[in-house]
Amino acid sequence: MAPPAQTNRSPSPSQPSGKSEVTDLKSQLRQLAGSRLPGVDDSKRELFKKVISYMTIGIDVSSVFGEMVMCSATSDIVLKKMCYLYVGNYAKVNPDLALLTINFLQRDCKDEDPMIRGLALRSLSSLNVANLVEYLVGPLNAGLKDNNSYVRIVAVIGVLKLYHISVTTCIDADFPAVLKHLLLNDQDTQVVANCLLALQEIWNGEASTSGDAMKEREALLSKPFIYYLLNRIKEFSEWAQCLVLDLVVKYVPADSNEIFDIMNLLEDRLQHANGAVVLATAKVFLHLTLSMTDVHQQVYERIKAPLLTLVSSGSPEQSYAVLSHLHLLVMHAPYVFSADYKHFYCQYNEPSYVKKLKLEMLTAVANESSTYEIVTELCEYAANVDIPIARESIRAVGKIALQQYDVNAIVDRLLQFLEMEKDYVTAEALVLVKDLLRKYPQWSHDCIAVVGNISSQNVQEPKAKAALIWMLGEYSQDMSDAPYILESLTENWDEEHSAEVRLHLLTAVMKCFFKRPPETQKALGAALAAGLADFHQDVHDRALFYYRLLQHNVTVAERVVNPPKQAVSVFADTQSSEVKDRIFDEFNSLSVVYQKEHRGPFEFSDELGSLAIGTESDVPAHVVEANDKDLLLGTPDKEESRGAGTNGSAYTAPLYDTSLLSTATQVQPELPISNPAAAGLSPQSSLAIDDLLGLGLPAAPAPTLAPSPPPLKLNAGAACLFTASPTGHILIFVMDRSLSQELSVSPQGAAALTTPQTLPRHLQGHSIHCIASGGQAPNLKFFFFAQKAEESSIFLIECKINTSSAKTQITIKADDQSMSQAFSTLFQSALSRFGTS
Amino acid sequence: MLQCIFILSDSGEVMLEKQLIGHKVDRSICAWFWDQVISQGDSFKQQSVIASPTHYLFQIVREGITFLACTQLEMPPLMGIEFLCRVADVLSDYLEGLNEDVIKDNFVIVYELLDEMIDNGFPLTTEPNILREMIAPPNIVSKMLSVVTGNSSNMGVTLPGATASCVPWRTTDIKYANNEVYVDLVEEMDAIINRDGVLVKCEIYGEVQVNSHITGVPELTLSFANPSIMDDVSFHPCVRFRPWESHHILSFVPPDGLFKLMSYRVKKLKTTPIYVKPQITSDAGTCRINVMVGIRNDTGKMIDSITLQFQLPSCVLSADLTANHGAVTVFSNKMCNWSIDRIPKDRAPALSGTLLLETGLERLHVFPSFRVGFRIQGVALSGLQLDKLDLRVVPSRLYRGFRALTRSGLFEVRS
């Protein structure tokens, strides 16, 4: 029975053995084709099996298509099934030969056995050959009216397949109407479910072009229809229940009574053995009660137990998927889970990403009563074999400490970590102690005593080293040998590879100097000299800044470098609540499980594009990571080639508006495109910036436009385009689609441009922000950006204005191409008002 | 909506490919996937949803066989995962186990099953009882039948009646000469005992498994003596919700054969049946280890299959371990296994030995956790008790059987 073992191992279809065997098969099949001898079915079966096994392992057996079709005249259902499988696989590449199969498939569609009717219809509709759809309409029509539900189930899905092959054929044959009738009247719930599935897709696809389809789609969410489905929900298969629940999520009940009715009806679904049903129900509950705060909390309580059960009941894969959802809920409402913290204890043999989730949950649910136990548990993980987890658990202890429950006990634990003599434990603990001291300076005495005993030689990790140096600087008055440790660190300046550590060292030496000048003076001189000679821009700048500050006035310098500090009350959280909320909308979606934000459907080929349901695309802009050095140092070649430019055309530093400023301050040390750097650049730096923004590229042809572009609104407080990545690189969104146009400026506008800064100010009133500007009259150049309101769509505009001819050349780049034209209109109208208002 | 299902062998070979919609998914996705498996190791294999550059992938691994499904559209994650689990369950049921050879030998059956289980990427019939009627399993009985009757088809001649019946999990016209119904309580104990020997977490996850062979369409009711101890329950679709809600009675029409009727959790148990006391002391580069195992709480039933597993830290160079009872094995990856089986009457099993640490290390900083395994026949440790099992219409000959079993789940003792 088994397919020959050696063929299974054939690695590629091109292998000669594969080819000759296929030819062999071909001739054998040919011999059997016309034969009516007894036992012929058995030999056929063996041959078919071989063909399918070749197909399965990836050998191209499309060459035997004709023979397979010839052999397909048989009453043996397994032979038929194998033949259907084969035909379904190769019909697309052999559309001409596929025509040969139509005959026998159509005949089988009229077989008296409903199973054969169904199978034949399924194969016929899976051929996926556009030329053959005309042969599909008749059998589908018959199938939809078949008295056997199995055939109807297949036929309904067949209609959907037809729709994807040929929309017009499907619509012209009036199939949606037939499906709608079945949806409302069929006795078999699987037929109803399949109708629902098919109609959702079809009407979603049609809604953009047909008003009727839009209405039909809305009708699916009408009260009577939703109730019709809900009342029968227990009759549906578990998968169909998921489908129905997915639809109910979108339904908006009229009042709270309705909400309670639905929840009462669905409550037992939470006890279903299928996790997909449970999660779908939980999603319905969460969505229905979003506006009812009290009930929403009760919903959390209600769905908690079933989810916890699912975690312990399923296979590891299921458990992890459910755990990810629990994680989402815990992060959202930790207090609901405060008594269940033991569920989030890690087992040593769990994979580390599970442990990581659990650690985050443990951190979140800790409160006054559970802190002690949770911290005890976390401390056990610090001795874990899995080093990343050990680190995470120490960090978790620190986070709990910063939540200010029972700090006393935690500080003791942290200090114990410092004495564990393990590099990574010490490193993590040092970072935590630093954070802790920033929040609870009152603990400094205890901590400093322990920290003082740590030899700086044993601390190698930059973050930990920086933390240690920070403490040495901050508490140098309490640590007798602080100046000397700092001095020895300064002596090894060249061996310190991390700029972060060097920056901290500079500051720490400064602080120490203000507290203990005689002892530190030597170290300070050495540090400043080393800093000034440092090749790293930030270190150099900071050293220079300190140097000049000290030159200027030492008391002022102290006020700047070492002002009295207030304890930090809240640390900026790494994950903003906005992101958490957005992910929360995605409960029961894939993104929850792979733990990243929803990135929308993949880019499809034309064929699949129509399948996308409810697509909401995120920013498809390409993110280009440009090293800050490239940005700043990338210019010299061009400088030389162009020689000394006219100073007049130097680009002025960008006019940061408030939103830009706030971003800039947050990331200050790492943001290379800050004013001094930009200002210090020579004129031709425009080219570099030009290239980085992708604006120098030849403009693509103007895109075709949507029939009626919706009015475009811009986000007034648009966020900065430049974001500093953790590595100190700049991320720049480069849009590769652009739209170029020539406009004219009103004469008043041209006149107003004698002072170029008026234009950015004017456009800012229209929510268009200036990134950079430059040039000299009559040729001025501006770079603007704007962001669409409530969306992350971004527009970049390069605008060249010739004030003498009053002509403007604009190039617009947008990540959403369809909006370019709309934006262009908006920009024009904004520009035309310039100078008149 | 799933677009494609691949079944991969444990060496990454594509054994089977089932395209589900017109838009074909290229096999190269499997190559990408396998590269990730090789580069990221085991932890990658346990991730159930992966975002590849072109598709979202679902994967589950059973007996070394990877079931991989691809989609490009957002969909409920558990729909994909649960479905693959069903596929794996149904296949292992049909083929009586899962391995590379059995799938390759029976790929036609696998294709036939997938054809009925999913259409156009949406799960269709996953109920094993129904599938069995549509596609006969390739077992010996049906092979013999085909020899005797000369009918070599492995397919049912008629469509299963249940596709149209109101009890979709059960077929009509089932006839048995002897009617039997067996109810098993199977419990797993999850526990964590910390360094100080304190039981920090102890919970039981239990299942009620029913194996029924009864003529006709039987109406069963099952009740518990103490249903209130269950913290949370979930049911097979056959269980009616109302009787449970009002009287905590399970009322159902069972599928034919073995199935999981319900699952439950019991929280906050106070004690474990056995104790494990590890002691580890280290000094001057060597480490003494001593582990004692014994019965803490006599249930009156024999505890067997006791095992202890632990991973030695990487800083341990060599281990010399002996036990006064049972066999100790140290594997090359520093995993130790001590199989005790039953605890002898005369003495408490103990494991002792020395570990040699890496040069330069004085003391051990990382301590192993012990994974404990055991089985107890005849008792459900949660204390849950079945009260009675009734049939509305009792057939002439009926045999009812009850059993209970507790085994360890994630039972961890830290040192």
Write the layout of secondary structure elements.
The complex is a heterodimer of chains A (837) and B (415).
Chain A: H1 5-8, H2 16-33, H3 40-57, H4 65-71, H5 77-90, H6 95-108, H7 114-126, H8 134-144, H9 149-165, H10 167-172, H11 175-185, H12 189-206, H13 211-219, H14 223-231, H15 238-250, H16 256-266, H17 275-288, H18 293-313, H19 316-332, H20 352-365, H21 371-382, H22 387-402, H23 407-418, H24 423-439, H25 444-451, H26 462-474, H27 482-491, H28 499-515, H29 517-532, H30 537-552, H31 554-561, H32 577-585, H33 590-594, H34 606-609, E1 622-626, H35 628-633, H36 636-642, H37 658-666, H38 675-680, H39 685-693, E2 723-724, E3 730-734, E4 738-744, H40 747-752, H41 758-764, E5 769-776, E6 779-787, E7 794-802, E8 807-814, H42 820-832
Antiparallel strand pairs in A: 1-3, 2-3, 4-8, 5-6, 6-7, 7-8
Helix pairs in contact in A: 2-3, 2-4, 3-5, 5-7, 6-7, 7-8, 7-9, 8-9, 9-12, 11-12, 12-13, 12-15, 15-17, 17-18, 18-19, 19-20, 19-32, 20-22, 21-22, 21-23, 22-23, 22-24, 23-24, 24-26, 26-28, 27-28, 27-29, 28-29, 28-30, 29-30, 30-31
Chain B: E1 4-8, E2 14-19, H1 28-40, H2 42-45, E3 49-51, E4 56-62, E5 65-71, H3 77-94, H4 100-105, H5 107-117, E6 118-119, E7 122-123, H6 128-134, H7 140-149, E8 179-193, E9 199-213, E10 220-224, E11 232-235, H8 241-247, E12 249-252, E13 257-266, E14 274-283, E15 286-295, E16 303-311, E17 316-323, E18 327-330, E19 335-341, E20 350-357, E21 369-377, E22 386-391, E23 398-414
Parallel strand pairs in B: 8-23
Antiparallel strand pairs in B: 1-2, 1-5, 3-4, 4-5, 6-7, 8-9, 9-13, 10-12, 10-22, 11-13, 14-15, 15-20, 16-19, 16-21, 17-20, 18-19, 21-23
Main location (chain B): membrane
Keywords (chain B): Membrane, Protein transport, Transport
Protein name (chain B): MHD domain-containing protein
